[in-house]
Amino acid sequence: MSATPQHQAKVSEREARQVAEAAREQDWRKPSFAKELFLGRFRIDLIHPHPMPADEDAQRGEEFLAKLRDFCETEIDAARIEREAKIPDETVNGLKELGALGMKIDTKYGGLGLTQVYYNKSLALVGSASPAIGALLSAHQSIGVPQPLKLFGTQEQKDTFLPRCARTDISAFLLTEPDVGSDPARLATTAVPDGDSYVLDGVKLWTTNGVVADLLVVMARVPKSEGHRGGITAFVVEAASDGITVENRNAFMGLRGLENGVTRFDQVRVPAANRIGPEGAGLKIALTTLNTGRLSLPAMCVGAGKWCLKIAREWSAAREQWGKPVAFHEAVGAKISFIAATTFALEAVVDLSSQMADEDRNDIRIEAALAKLYGSEMGCLMADELVQIRGGRGFETAESLAARGERAVPAEQILRDLRINRIFEGSTEIMHLLIAREAVDAHLSVAGDLIDPEKSLSDKARAGAKAGGFYARWLPKLVAGPGQLPRSYSEFHPAGHRDLSGHLRYVERSARKLARSTFYAMSRWQGRMETKQGFLGRIVDIGAELFAMSAACVRAELLRTTEEYGREAYQLADVFCRQARIRVDELFDRLWTNTDEPDRKVVKGVLGGTYTWLEQGVVDPSGDGPWIADASPGSSKRENVHRPIR
Q: What does the alpha-carbon distance between residue 597 and residue 276 come to, in Å, rounded to a whole number?
């Protein structure tokens, strides 16, 4: 059977890029620390002194955290959720009564009105009790109905839907389709105008919260016609509408309580008043929503890191081998140090990005994307190291440990639960490309026509003149900077504390080196630059490490002046920066010394059947069926498993 459903239209690579490019926010109206970093400019003034929440916001946030902690400790049975693969209805209803559905919704609509900082702290807390509950609340508020309506909804839409979302109704976000992932140009679900309504047809896959949702944000393609500009458009849809069938509740290696499904739309009538924004603005709305929505995932990774550190500390002190606790064996101790230092840095990244989002002084689209990328990768590494520290007990389930009389530590579960974060809301590979596109935006804005094969000679000539002026001013600034002056950033070397100023000088030097490397690559590959995904991924990873180092140092200085454990914070920041510098140096080496070219040749050989002999000697236990399920529109032939929680 064909891997591509017959109804799916073919889309060229160029068409797909044009759709993605049209959806991204074009202008930079506010400063961006991360954007400047990729341009070789270390603007520490944008993040230091560390921004702080208003006293009223902090008090309201802390009061809710106290209530949420009590709920997590007394009302959430994580073992039951894992065992039954379902969050009990009474737990969800308890969260509703607590107001957890409305953490980010303004108080005038019945929500709690928490800041991004305290919303993320709440997700870290509840996610540590049950990652499935963290995912439910995050999908509902970060990308579900509340956030796009907050940013793009009409007053009537806010008045209608936000009070419901704040207290009673669970929402879901529906973009992905069986044959559409990160390539929205192939979107097949349609919304055909019909009078004062639209009629939706199509199938959506991996609809987190979709099985229990009351309200849906649906992305569908409106055909271009007279009076309709068409394009991918966002709608608020009542989940109980006629013609909607939840055909399957999907099961995964982790997040067993996740209510994630397949949703079919067959002639579903949606009022035009439920359209969010104009026709054709759906992808822009989705991407803008994700600018801050992505911070929820690294926030829960922070919670996971804190839990991993707690278990690693307690276990490694209790477990003795060869006459001493395993923590004091260097091979294990290095893992504990990595978990502690990385948790500190990741919390610094999330808190800094969240506070900048609250203040709205900076454009944080790159910072939020870097936080998501870095948090999801580092979260998995920390969980994997915890499993290794626990040894055989790390691989054993909590239920099995309890059955034979030991503490029920779900180390293997946290590893399974965290793994999806490298895929959710933009896979690591897509995040590399998304961030790289934003990082080189300044270059493309002045020199893009030079490397565009479809531009005329006159266009290229004008671009050449424009680029010449930009690079004549920019390139000389990459030669020298504060990172070469021994006393730069001296405020980060207070008496009696570790010296963090040297790490910030390293960040400044590395930022200039990163910008020079990017410029050299663009000069070398020009229009082929976008195909060099290995190179672009390393560029982004270097930027992520430099951002994390900056955030860690700034957070350590904040804690030195506000908390009694400032000295310890400086120690953690110092160790993290030392570890990060090793990774950065390796990434710089791999920019030009790598196996990218031979890898491409091997891939061609694999797909061409050159190495099928290597696959001999095994059997394939996979079941039969197509690689991609058919998603042709039409009425459902399956039972509706939708079950709203009341």
A: 45
Q: Give the pTM.
A: 0.94
Over residues 14-32, the pLDDT tens digits come to: 666 666 666 566 677 899 9
Residue type, 33: F
Chain centroid to CA 642: how far? 27
Closest CA to 565 of 556, 575, 577, 554: 556
Cis peptide before 193 (omega within 30 of 0): no
Question: 3-class SS at 3?
Answer: coil
Asked if 363 contacts 28 with a C-beta cutoff of 8 angstroms, the reply is yes
CA distances from 101 to 97, 167, 196, 438 (A): 9, 6, 31, 32
Tell me how long the chain is.
646
Q: What are phi and psi of 396, to 5 degrees?
A: -85, 145
Greater model confidence, 524 or 386: 386
Query: In the chain, what are the helix, strand and coil shares in percent, each to the nearest 5?
Result: 60, 10, 30
Give the number of other CB atoms < 10 A from CB of residue 276: 23
Strands 190-194 and 260-271: unpaired
CB neighbour list of residue 229: distance below 8 Å, 6 or more residues apart: 222, 278, 279, 280
Residue with tokens 């409305």: 102
* Residue 200, beta-bridge partner list: 191, 268
Chain centroid, CA 626 distance in Å: 30
- Phi-psi label, residue 200: left if phi above 0, alpha if psi -120 to 50, beta otherwise: beta
Q: State the DSSP string of 373-418.
A: HHHHHHHHHHHHHHHHHHTHHHHS-HHHHHHTTS----HHHHHHHH
**Alpha carbon distance 28, 607 (integer Å):** 42
Q: Concatenate the DSSP letters of all residues of 120-174 into one string.
A: HHHHHHHHHH-HHHHHHHHIIIIISSHHHHHHH--HHHHHHHHHHHHHT--EEEE
Distance CA(100)–CA(299), nearest Å, equals 16
Burial grade of 108 (CB within 10 A; 0-12, 13-18, 19 or more):
exposed
Q: 425 an active-site residue?
A: yes
pLDDT in tens, 188-213: 999 999 999 999 999 999 999 999 99
Q: Does an H or E element contain 276, and which?
A: strand 275-276
The pair phi, psi for residue 184, each rounded to 5°, is: -65, -15
Selection from 579, 643, 523 nearest residue 88 by Cα: 643
Helix orientation angle between 13-23 and 282-293, rounded to the nearest 10 degrees: 60
In the three-class reduction of DSSP (H, G, I as helix; E, B as strand; rest coil), residue 621 is classed as coil
Tell me the C-alpha to C-alpha distance, in Å, between residue 300 and each of 93, 124, 519, 555, 607: 22, 4, 36, 19, 38
Residues 6+ apart with CB under 8 A from 586: none
CA dist., res. 307 & res. 315, Å (int): 12
Look-up: residue for tokens 């502690």? 340
- 243 neighbors 193 (Cβ within 8 angstroms): no
**pLDDT, tens digit, 9 for 90 and up, residues 170-189:** 999 999 999 887 777 789 99
Cα distance between residue 603 and residue 476, in whole Å? 40
Of the candidates 82, 425, 508, 545, the residue annotated as catalytic is: 425
